[in-house]
Design a protein that fits this description.
The complex is a heterodimer of chains A (about 140) and B (about 150).
Chain A: H1 3-12, E1 15-17, H2 22-26, E2 30-34, E3 37-42, E4 49-51, E5 56-57, H3 59-77, E6 86-96, E7 105-114, E8 118-126, E9 135-144
Antiparallel strand pairs in A: 1-2, 2-3, 3-7, 4-5, 6-9, 7-8, 8-9
Helix pairs in contact in A: 1-3
Chain B: H1 5-15, H2 17-22, E1 25-29, E2 33-38, H3 59-78, E3 84-93, E4 103-112, E5 116-124, E6 133-141
Antiparallel strand pairs in B: 1-2, 2-4, 3-6, 4-5, 5-6
Classes of the chains: A alpha+beta (about 140), B alpha+beta (about 150).
């Protein structure tokens, strides 16, 4: 799956696996498209552990999940554009709210402002209880049309 | 050279699965700073490059490198390998890493209070004067989890 395939995937399919994107594949990411946009799922594997005792997810794996959730939501939002713009991250700020348990993790992004060149995105990651986020992120992304 | 911390960091590397999987390794440590390396690997690429060229390392992998080195720099400054929890971490992505190059993450503790460490750092791929990302973060000193 290339960048354009990912774009097509989150535009047309309701769920699937992010294949062909090496880092997303390395994290084992899956997607699901619903009424409220794209949700990414990062199933728990031992390879995601960043603190062995007690086992906790590496904060970086959660950040990676949230960054890709932003891109996936952005591609979904831009699905009706004739030509998909190139997307480049400008900056990302992650707030860690709770320790990541050895469980499946979910992330969903909201486009706060879609500018012509810069997009501001808010992302939330959670595990078994969606009302108890484990991390939030704010991301600015550059569009090259 | 912080001789207390080097063996600690080496050991940590071996036992943290996500760090091992990414291939993150020791690069240097001092009184209040640490540096780790992230060698280029096909599996860390964001999007495959056309025509079999090497692709750019995903920004998420660089984030993991910086989160890791931020934590290690706090341990170096405290001179004890006690666990730390990331409160927040910000990265400015100045430019993509050069495909095929090892990325280095440097972090320095600027202030250590009883409960919080304030760090600044950067990621580079060979030349410190031409960083690929700037980092600012806060870590909480803790003996357990936050939740």
């Amino acid at each position: 799956m290339s960048f354009t395939d990912l774009s097509r995937g989150v535009s047309t399919a309701s769920e699937g696996v992010l294949t062909g994107l090496p880092y997303a594949e390395f994290l084992g990411l899956q997607f699901s498209v619903g009424q409220d946009g794209v949700t990414l799922i990062m199933p728990f594997t031992k390879a995601l552990i960043g603190s062995p005792q007690p086992p906790r997810l590496h904060g970086g794996s959660v950040a990676g999940l949230m960054e890709i959730a932003s891109i996936a939501q952005l591609l979904h939002s831009l699905r009706d554009e004739e030509k998909v713009p190139a997307i480049k991250p400008i900056d990302v700020t992650v707030d860690y709210l709770r320790a990541g348990q050895p469980e499946d993790t979910y992330a969903r992004a909201t486009i706060v402002r879609m500018g012509r060149r810069v997009v501001n995105v808010q992302v939330t990651a959670w595990q078994s209880d969606a009302d108890k986020p484990i991390a939030t992120a704010r991301m600015n992304v550059m569009l090259k049309r | 050279m912080n001789i207390v911390m080097k063996p600690v960091i080496d050991q940590f590397m071996k036992f943290i699965p996500h760090i091992r999987e990414l291939g993150i390794g020791y690069s240097g440590v001092g009184r209040d700073w640490a540096e780790l390396s992230l060698p280029w690997q096909e599996k860390l690429v964001a999007y495959p490059a056309p025509d079999g060229e090497k692709g750019v390392i995903a920004s998420g992998a660089v984030f993991t490198l910086m989160d890791s080195v931020g934590g290690f720099s706090v341990q170096a400054a405290r001179k004890i390998p006690a666990p730390v929890a990331t409160v927040d971490l910000r990265l400015d992505y100045l430019r993509p890493a050069n495909p095929g190059e090892t990325v280095y993450g440097y972090s320095k503790v600027h202030k250590l209070t009883r409960s919080i460490a304030f760090v600044r750092g950067y990621a580079h791929d060979g030349e410190r004067e031409d960083p690929i990302a700037l980092m600012a973060g806060c870590f909480m000193l803790t003996s357990g989890s936050k939740s």
